[in-house]
Design a protein that fits this description.
By secondary structure, the protein is mostly helical. The protein is 70% helix and 0% strand.
Length: 213
């Protein structure tokens, strides 16, 4: 089951390794062993330094979901408590304006834009620089982004839906999208990667104590 995405040829091996790297290096996982394994696998499959760095950068900015989730709750609860937020400091927002102009603005970002437009614009400038770099084609970017959001350590449903929609628009097939989801599922084997050596070590220690007794 875990090896199935590596055998089918869809997606190609390099993208399989990059997706696997994504869900291991994601800021919600940070699995060092898996990250090293899939860096090696991606290099073996022909990935460049820039492509692997791109995955790392995407893994870092997914942390914005802390605000996507929390800012609306903050505003709702403040309203319920009768507390009004302080007026946001005036700030130019060229990166936000640019994203809105090209149709890439996400309404989930509106709450934290209202709370802190300057910080939001700085974040959007960072994200736009990553996603607009041209390192990977749009379809692969959307499949990677979907994997970050669908991974079992994150499970951010609004992001999954948005990136599925964008992947379909970018030409991804249902098969390609589901194969990426299967790669996310394959990461569940890490429970055994972590647990089995610990179990064996503890059983060995216990057996040694029993023999000594």
């Amino acid at each position: 089951m875990a090896n199935d995405p590596w055998r089918g040829g869809v997606p190609p091996r390099k993208l399989v390794e990059l997706v696997s790297l994504a869900v291991n290096v994601a800021c919600t996982n940070l699995n060092a062993d898996g990250t090293r394994r899939h860096v090696r696998g991606a290099l073996d499959a022909g990935a460049s330094r820039e492509e692997i760095l791109f995955v790392f950068k995407c893994a870092s900015v997914m942390a914005v979901h802390s605000c996507s989730l929390g800012a609306p709750i903050l505003l709702e609860e403040a309203k319920a408590a009768g507390v009004a937020p302080a007026p946001a400091s005036p700030a130019a927002t060229p990166a936000v304006d640019s994203m809105k102009g090209i149709g890439q603005w996400n309404a989930a970002w509106d709450p934290f834009l209202a709370l802190d437009p300057g910080w939001t614009d700085a974040f959007m400038a960072t994200g736009a620089g990553i996603y607009g770099s041209g390192v990977l084609p749009a379809k692969e970017i959307e499949l990677l982004s979907m994997a970050f959001d669908a991974s079992f350590t994150h499970m951010y449903a609004p992001g999954v839906r948005r990136h599925v929609q964008n992947a379909l628009k970018a030409g991804a097939s249902i098969t390609e999208i589901f194969e990426v989801l299967k790669i996310c599922v394959a990461q569940g084997v890490q429970a055994c990667n972590l647990g089995v050596p610990i179990l064996e070590a503890e059983l060995s220690t216990r057996a040694g104590r029993d023999q000594a007794g």
